[in-house]
Amino acid sequence: MNLYDQQSANRRRTWLIVLAFVGFLLLLGAGFDAFYVGAAGGYVPVGSILALGVGSVSALASYFGGDRAVLAAAGAVPVEEVAASATEGDALKLRQLENVVDEMAIAAGLPRPRVYVVPDPDPNAFATGRGPERASIAVTRGLLDALDREELQGVVAHEMSHIKNLDVRVLTLVAALVGAVALLSDWARRGMMWGGGSRRRDDDERRGGFAGIVFFVVWLIAIILAPVLAQALAMMVSRQREYLADASGAELTRNPLGLARALEKIEDAVEPTRAINHGSAHLCIADPLGRKLNIGEGSWSGWFASHPPMAARIAALKAMAFQQ
Amino acid sequence: MAGLVLLGIIVLLVVWAIASYNRLVGLRNQVLNGWKQIDVQLKRRHDLIPNLVNAVRGSMDFERDTLTAVMDARAKAMGAAGPADAAAKEGQLSQALGRLLAVAENYPTLKSNDNVKMLQEELSATENKVGFARQFYNDIATRFNTAQQVFPTNLFATTFGFKPSELFEISEPSDRDVPVVDLSKR
Lengths: 324, 186
Known about the structure:
CATH class of the largest domain in chain A: Alpha Beta
Largest interface: A-B, 17 and 17 residues
CATH topology of the largest domain in chain A: Zincin-like
Number of domains of chain B: 1
Radius of gyration of chain B: 24 Å
Structural class of chain B: mainly alpha
Oligomer: heterodimer
């Protein structure tokens, strides 16, 4: 698949995810209407409208504010601000970061994304945004200190590929929807406890039938499992994109070994990146939680790993440079 | 019935022709933009070079040849016209610069000078940017050329005045050689 196929695959994926999300909202709302509102709402499907409305608004809000929220949560500071109060040697390092980002933006033929520094000693980096026109790249202080220019270039190229392939859009969207799903399921569960007494009575009178029970069970399972499934989906999307970003990053720099060496260094620094919380783990170049999940592939724990095993990624990059 | 089929075929052909034409126009603009990008970076490099030369001049007095070579190559590169000419002259400038930076490595006072270090970073970044802009330009120009030359687009591409773009490549065989840096004559 070339880049354009990648982008259209990601556009398709975006629509599929949105469709699945709307489907979930409708299911949630319809179930709520059927079991709780019942005759009180008359012919107006209050639950469905409410679920669609609240779900869409919360999803849209986190989609459009998602990048700012992620950057704020990580305590990311714009590189210009950091550079303004930096020492001589530090200024060189920061200038290098800006230059490397410029280089990769040129290589990818994209506008320059905004650059941030996260004050955290663990080496890590992430990209976020809605697409090439509005994207940000953040690197930790530890990454700047640990990597040389070539390695930094590899990492930035990896992040730039996430932007170019529209991965940032899909991932920001997935994160927004996971949040909305969790919120709504939570409400539905609370609503269930709160309206529990009246439900059983109404239900027996109005529904009663086998179909009604089946629908109720499906609905119940859906709201209980939705947050977990949404999370697993997010992680799956994220894992798939990592190999690709490694490969297309190497295509930008034409130097796969730079990124391979960077990954080795990141791997060696095992301690978790404290500034980056769980919610944005799938955006990072390496799992910020330092979990051991990412070591084996195919095990059950792999379902919730946000990244493929580091050793496999490094081996793939070295194979690109014909080194084993 | 036959008339309808014929009409349908003609409509399809027209739609296809419009789509191909628009695609070619889009690619041509991308190629032009790619070329502008290289130009911007080259200009930036031309602006940076005098700063570097001035910064190192004091410490590298007996490397006059290296310094003059850089300034000469810069002057030539600034007067280049067209991708092929520019590619050749910029290649020579890159070589001269590479030699200067390699020689500067031997001067401890220069290596520890923050100002020089910053200039070196800027220069190698600009050098990289030129390289990446060229890489992007060549990729997009190749795609534009391929789009013109594939059948059946090639049947009308020339009629509408599309011309294959020149690639930005090193044309002289001597430029392909690794620059020789002789550190013994000091």
